[in-house]
Design a protein that fits this description.
- By secondary structure, chain A is of the alpha/beta class.
- Chain A folds into five domains: about 5-95, Glutaredoxin (3-Layer(aba) Sandwich); about 130-335, 3-Layer(aba) Sandwich (Rossmann fold); about 350-430, Ubiquitin-like (UB roll), CATH 3.10.20.600; about 435-525, NADH-ubiquinone oxidoreductase 51kDa subunit, iron-sulphur binding domain (de novo design (two linked rop proteins), Up-down Bundle), CATH 1.20.1440.230; about 540-594, Alpha-Beta Plaits, CATH 3.30.70.
- Helix content of chain A is about 40%, strand content about 15%.
- In chain A, the strands form five sheets. Chain A has a five-stranded mixed beta sheet with strand order 10-9-13-11-12.
- In chain A, a hairpin with a 6-residue loop joins strand 11 (about 390-395) and strand 12.
- The longest helix of chain A is centred in the C-terminal third of the chain and has 18 residues, at about 455-475.
- Chain A is flat and about 90 Å long.
- Chain A starts with 5 loop residues before the first strand and ends with a strand.
- Chain B is of the alpha+beta class.
- Chain B folds into two domains: about 10-70; about 80-155, 3-Layer(aba) Sandwich (Glutaredoxin), CATH 3.40.30.10.
- Chain B is about 45% helix and about 15% strand.
- A five-stranded mixed beta sheet of chain B has the order 2-3-1-4-5, covered by helices on one side.
- In chain B, a hairpin with a 5-residue loop joins strand 2 and strand 3 (about 120-125).
- In chain B, helix 1 packs antiparallel against helix 2 and helix 1 (about 10-20) runs parallel beside helix 3.
- Classes of the chains: A alpha/beta, B alpha+beta.
Chain lengths: ~600, ~160
């Protein structure tokens, strides 16, 4: 066999052909002959390389991996001479990459390790062949042909993989429990009803790498002995639903889903179910009710879904990220996976950074990284170089973590030890201009709105919490309110039916624990230290700085500002509605908040 | 998104199309209702009666389901539905000012429709596009990084 030092792959996509790919091929051949390179460089035809609309005609040089685009026959002599004789890349002919700024997922930062997000933004989610080219469905083949269901479970057990949906239950343990139940019909369910507001890693995986989830679920189905699976996806994610449906269709065509997968006697098929907008449906028992077409209300556990799940049959429910990890664990071995992370939390975790941090978006890091590394090294620090106040993890059921714990290594246990949770990986950073009473009130507004109403502690309790917090923000806080908040929080936590209710007081509890003095300032001094709560602030015009330009007075919607031209103006605090417009329009920074 | 069929016939047509697509199966209730809601704009009484008859689900259960999920509406909605993301990341990114501007521009209460039938303003939980908060969605169009002063111009695009 002839050995070539370089290969030129010329795209013969119809659009490239139309724009002269054949002529390019001929010109390349002629030039290589002329330069005596025919034995060193081989020219081959290939299908589409770049975007034909943007790049045609184009070619790829291997092993260099250089993509030349928009070529004409006249470029070829120069290209061959420079690249293949002199070994210099011809920059001016290189393909211009489309400048797509991905606000959700930037290139990996130095402390990141991407397992779940590895294919996101790299492969075409609507083309199964691209997934296969990245070793896709190899893990399934390995599981089905070389492993028994038990060894699959053992492998996942050794990897230490824990549920990425929140509670962090050992994934393999769940599989084992479901497998053990002596029932013929079993189901696997995928929770794609991403819980935490602010956490969108699951949406991103479904939209960018849907086959990883399909493959992970199929392996899980093999391990537990299920023949049918459901992916429950939020109605807020129409694109994810569409991408998943395409992926499932293609997987069926390739024999990765359906009867006798890969020629074995294992059969399994999948279906996407869409929600209709209800936060509580992320709770697994509520999710199952919703799949069955009912109100998405949770029910008490036990019995756990692994014993009595969908339609009363044993059902294994994991979330998107958990399943997406599985193929990699099977393929690269449990030791590789367990080599990342901390003693009890193995592997990597995706987080969605939001709030007052410079770099928002998705990241994936090994467990054990500190919050400081996440916020400062990866997140780039606080926006506008303000101070860090707290980070809220785990969504509306999570807690606030103050600056004193910035060096906390992130894993399930460590977050729990400071009163927060992992959740599905939302991280909201707040700066020092944030009022913690207002933030707690905001979270409570959310949970009381989303409470399904089935159990009293959550339905009524969250409402009462909200009322007290609102009162404090409005400057009507009373002596004893802090104690009332604490007592009520404990009761809601202890008595609620599902995780939503049990976790609902967490933002309040942690805000009280770490920022108690702010609550006291609101209640006893009628003062909002962060200058956020409107009822507790006044706007004042600074004498000497004000030039008397009258801009503020003209813009005030309630005519609360008076004053002569070129004289310091005055705000009447009784008329002022604290809208802040005067401060925005003032050109001399002459207005301050007290 | 919301082209109100003028007569009951079109409503029934929407019901049948949805049931044909998903099958007259109790489990498919939510997809069926979602489809009808999308075509008709809301779930009128006659639609629910027809679903009840064809899928063989008691009306009480249908009512339980339709009132539980936020995206299903039993009240007519405006020609355009504005969904405002009320989740924490959008809130932190300045969502409240956008919300207040929306209320001010539309002169309407949340979950209600303007008297001229043009707008319905609803809040939704996280739309998962938190990287570009605050986010509003009008019909099927998504607007990210919305600043209060843009609201007027965004609304002006719709008639």
């Amino acid at each position: 066999m002839a050995f070539y030092r370089s290969h030129i792959l010329v795209s013969v996509d119809p659009k490239c052909l139309k724009k002269g790919a054949h002529e390019i091929l001929d010109a390349l051949q002629d030039e290589l002959v002329a330069n005596g390179l025919v034995d060193e460089v081989q020219v081959l035809e290939t299908s589409r390389i770049g975007d034909p609309d943007l790049h045609a005609p184009d070619l790829m040089v291997y092993p260099d991996g250089v993509h030349y685009a928009n070529l004409s026959v006249d470029d070829i002599p120069f290209l061959v001479e420079e690249h293949f004789l002199k070994g210099r890349i011809v920059e001016k002919l290189k393909a211009r990459e489309r400048l797509v700024s991905d606000e959700e997922l930037s290139a990996p930062k130095s402390k990141e390790v991407r397992v779940v997000l590895r294919n996101c933004g790299k492969i075409d989610p609507n083309n199964i062949e691209e997934y296969i080219a990245e070793d896709g469905y190899m893990a399934l083949a390995k599981a089905l042909t070389e492993m028994t269901p038990e060894t699959v479970i053992d492998t996942v057990m050794q990897s230490g993989l824990r549920g990425r949906g929140g509670a962090g239950f050992l994934t393999a343990q769940k599989w084992k429990l479901t497998r053990q139940v002596p029932e013929k019909i079993k189901y696997v369910g995928c929770n794609a009803d991403e819980g935490d507001p602010g956490a969108f890693m699951n949406r991103r995986v479904l939209e960018s790498d849907p086959h990883a989830v399909v493959e992970g679920m199929t392996i899980a189905a093999y391990a537990i002995g299920a023949s049918r699976g459901y992916i429950y996806c939020r109605a807020e994610y129409p694109l994810a639903v569409k991408t998943l449906n395409i992926a499932i269709m293609q997987a069926r065509e390739f024999g990765f889903l359906g009867k006798n997968i890969m020629g074995t006697d294992f059969s399994f098929d999948l279906e996407v179910r869409m929600g209709a907008g209800a936060f509580v449906c992320g709770e697994e028992t509520a999710l199952m009710s919703s799949i069955e077409g009912k109100r998405g209300e949770p029910r008490p556990r036990p019995p756990f879904p692994s014993v009595k799940g969908l339609w009363g049959k044993p059902t294994n429910i994991n979330n998107v990220e958990t399943y997406a990890n599985v193929p990699q664990i099977i393929l690269r071995g449990p030791q590789w996976y367990a080599s990342m992370g901390t003693e009890k939390s193995k592997g990597t975790k995706t987080f969605a950074m939001a709030g007052d941090v410079k770099n928002t978006g998705l990241i994936e890091v090994p467990f054990g990284i500190t919050l400081r590394e996440i916020v400062y090294d990866i997140g780039g620090g606080i926006k506008d170089d303000k101070g860090f106040k707290a980070i809220q993890t785990g969504g509306p059921m999570g807690g606030f973590i103050p600056a004193e714990y910035l060096d906390l290594p992130v894993d399930y246990e460590a977050l729990a030890s400071v009163g927060s949770i992992m959740g599905s990986g939302g991280m909201i950073v707040v700066d020092d201009e944030t009022c913690m009473v207002d933030m707690a009130r905001f979270f409570m507004e959310f949970t009381q709105d989303e409470s399904c109403g089935k159990c009293v502690p959550c339905r009524v309790g969250t409402r009462r919490l909200l009322e007290i917090l609102t009162r404090i923000c409005e400057g009507k806080g009373q002596d004893g309110d802090i104690e009332r908040l604490e007592e009520l929080s404990e009761e809601i936590r202890a008595a609620s039916l599902c995780g939503l209710g049990q976790g609902a007081p967490n933002p309040v509890i942690t805000a009280l624990k770490y920022f108690r003095q702010e609550y006291e300032a609101h209640i006893y001094e009628k003062r909002c230290p962060a200058k956020v709560c409107r009822a507790l602030i006044t706007y004042e015009i600074i004498d000497g700085v004000c030039t008397g330009c009258t801009v503020c007075a003209r813009n005030c919607p309630v005519n609360a500002i008076s004053g002569e031209r070129r004289q310091t103006h005055i705000i009447d605090p009784d008329t002022c509605i604290r809208c802040g417009i005067c401060m925005q329009v003032c050109n001399f920074n002459a207005i301050r908040i007290n | 998104m919301t082209n109100h069929p003028s007569n009951g016939k079109a409503v029934l047509e929407a019901v049948r199309t949805a049931i044909d697509k998903h099958g007259n199966n109790r489990e498919e209730l939510i997809p069926i209702l979602n489809d009808i809601n999308h075509t008709v704009g809301y779930l009128p009484k006659e639609a629910l009666e027809e679903v009840s008859r064809l899928v063989k689900v008691p009306k009480s259960q249908l009512f339980a389901v339709t009132t539980f999920y936020r995206m299903l509406s039993t009240r007519p909605r405006g020609r355009h539905v504005i969904q405002f993301c009320e989740s924490a990341p959008c809130h932190v990114a300045g969502g409240r000012k956008v919300w207040e501007t929306l209320l001010d521009e539309l002169k309407v209460n949340p979950e209600e429709t303007t008297p001229d039938g043009k707008w319905t303003l609803i809040t939704v939980s996280c739309l998962g596009i938190c990287g570009v908060g605050p986010v509003i969605v009008i019909d099927d169009d998504i607007y990210g990084n919305v600043a209060p002063e843009q609201v007027h111009d965004i609304l002006a695009k719709y008639d």
